[in-house]
Amino acid sequence: MRKIVVFIFLFISMTELIGQEKEEIKQLDSIQVRLARSLDSLLKDTPKELNVIVLKDLLKKLSPKPVKKPHIGWKSFGKFSFFFNQSAFNYDWQGGGTSNIAGNTALNYEFNYKKNSLTWDNKVLADYGLTFLKGENFARKTNDRIELNSRLGQRIGEGFWNYSLFVNFRSQFAKGYSFSKDPDTDETIRTEETHFFSPAFIQIGPGILWKKSDDFNVNIAPVTSRMIFVDDQFTSIPDYEDGDYFGVDEGRSSRFEFGGSISAYVKFQVIKNITMENILNLYSNYIEDPYNVDIDYTLNLNLVVNKYISGSFIFQAIYDDNATSGFQIREVLGLGLNYEF
Hints:
By secondary structure, the protein is of the alpha+beta class. The chain has two domains: 2-62; 73-340, Beta Barrel (Outer membrane phospholipase (ompla), Chain C). Helix content is 18%, strand content 53%. It is built from three helices and 14 strands. The strands form two sheets. A twelve-stranded antiparallel beta barrel has the order 1-2-3-4-5-8-9-10-11-12-13-14. Strands 6-7 form a two-stranded antiparallel ribbon. The longest helix is centred in the first third of the chain and has 44 residues, at 2-45. The radius of gyration is 36 Å and the shape is flat.
């Protein structure tokens, strides 16, 4: 009899629990229905474009951001540019000026290797420009440079510091002249002062590299060897005494220096389509006048109009008392064609 009573009690309790669960489910269903109706009404009252924007934004927040895998192996980039400038003045023009045509070509090619903690960065820079002035039988150079840079780096730990070894080569393509006036005929006279591989500079040295990115790095090489090569025809000219021609002694064709160097590279975007590139090289010769530091600073301001048209402003300042007693200043401004590969 007791068993029957217990069974009836349990059956009644289970029935009440099932009824309560059904009631809760009905309430949840009712809430979901009301919520769905509210959302449907809200979506109908808002523009479709706004709904799409909100949905895309929600999907971006919910979707995990893809992790960019570091590049392994060789990677290359090249850019070729051609700048043209022309000025013309007729006979009656009273403001002064000389009609001229000028052109400048530039090549920037990089080929870099990266694997794990090892990096090998290589860059080739080449510039050449000419201007033709009305009334002269020869052209004048506006730019002339060959430069090769190679730097090997091995990361130290997990930070930005690396062991490094760098090599730098600089020279020019064609002959360079100084210009003067003939006092008798008032004609322009040019005198050859430089040509290919005269001078040529080679620097090599181990050091420490701080590299946050390809656009921001500093290399410190406290032990750097520098060699200067020239044609001995220039060191035999009476006008050049010992050390007056890029520091090379009379009758010699080379000079060896031992010192330290620092090079820094910073590139950033100023505003949309305009980037600024800063390159600084410092060198001190421990053997002779160590406090007289050679300075080579270049600023490149690049404006991208479209894929094939760009503008460029280049400012370069060089201080090397072996070449001249003051700063050498170069400035190039142009709008021209470019091709990337």
